Every structure is written in structure tokens, then in C-alpha cells.
Amino acid sequence: NGLKWGLGLLDPSTQPVTEHLVASGAVNAAFAERPAAFGNPDVLKVVVLMTDGNIRYQQRPKPTSYDSSSERAHWASNQLNSSNAVLSSSSSQNSDEDFRVEQFLALCQQAKDAGILVFTIGFDISETDDAYDEMRDCASSAGHFYHVAGLELVTAFDQIASTIEKLKLVK
Q1: How far is CA 140 from the centre of its chain?
Q2: Helix (H) or strand (E) holding 145
Q3: Positive or negative CA dihedral for 56, 61, 62, 67?
Q4: For a designed S-S bond to 136, which of 13, 144, 145, 162 qualifies (C-beta 3.0 to 4.6 A apart)?
């Protein structure tokens, strides 16, 4: 879900949402033309994705539970606590997890194909965890994957920031 949200915020097809936010005064007018088009030579699109575990099922509202502004407002201010409004898994856990991993890796590939630079961080995970391979495979390259523990996390973010800054200077 985190990757989907991150990519959605970089997708130029969501520009009408930004325009609405600017028009309502919720967002500064400087953001009116964002997200920029893919392939714009003046823009570097970056996703930094971090995990401390494997891809798992996450509860979320059914689409019919947020198809009006009042329902969206409800979900924005309330926890998911009604079983009537939450999707649940009906097939086997293993096949669901395999499907979610396939979806995740497909999103990673779509991001890279669109020119988005993907950094991933595996925080406090073992090299034998599925998450290690998933995050390594999602990253734009082996050099864009950080396997860290404890305070190494700060170093990873510093290195990512430095890499982005160097790329901006080159372009």
C-alpha cells in the first residue's frame, strides 16, 4: 500500500487533485502543476520505500464504503473497526501472499519503467527473510537497496539524500 500511495503522488494523472487542493486554498499555488509529467527533464521523481517485514494483507475499507464525500470523511477520522466495511481474505494465505508479492514487484517495475528512481530500505530484516529479496528486487539497482539495522538507518537516509543531490546537480 505504501508503494501504491507513493507512486500515486508522483503520477501526473493525479494533477486534477492537486489543482482542486490549490483552488480550495489547502495547498500553495506553487504546486498547481504537480505532479509533473513523466519524462520531464527538469524533474527527478524518487520513491524511498522502507519495510521491517514481509508483504502482508492489510485491512482496508470496501470501495462501497467510501464512494461519497461523507463516507470518505468518516474513514479519514475513524479507525477500521467494522467488519462490514473491511475487505477480508477469502483464499489461502500463501496464494494471497504470492499474489501480493507479484503485484508489488509489478508496481516496482512500472515505477522504474516510468523513470522513477526507487530506493528501498530493509530495516532490521534478515537476509533470509522474503522481504530482503523483495526490497532488493524492487530497488532501481543493487546500489539503491539498503539493508540496515539500528542507527544505520540514519546513514542510509543520508546516503540516499546525497545520491539524490548529486543527481540533481548532474541534471
Answers
A1: 14
A2: strand 145-148
A3: negative
A4: 145
Reported in sequence order, the residue ranges of 21-136 that DSSP labels E, i.e. its strands, are: 46-51, 117-123
**36, 11 in Cβ contact below 8 A?**
no
Which pLDDT tens digit goes with each residue over 100-153?
888 889 999 999 999 999 999 999 999 998 899 999 999 999 999 999 999 999
Cβ-contact 51, 123 below 8 angstroms: yes
Query: pLDDT tens digits for 20-46?
Result: 889 999 989 998 889 999 989 889 999
Adjacent-strand bridge partners of 117: 46
- Look up cell 527473510; give the residue: 129
Q: How many CB atoms lie within 10 A of CB 117?
A: 19
Q: By the 8 A CB rule, do 48 and 123 touch?
A: no
Residues in the chain: 171
The single residue listed with the C-alpha cell 467494522 is: 82
Residue whose C-alpha is closest to residue 147's, from 167, 170, 120: 120
Rounded Cα gap, residues 103 and 124, in angstroms = 24
pTM, 2 dp: 0.74
CA distance 145 to 156: 9
Rounded to 10 deg, the angle between the 2-10 and 93-113 helix axes is 20
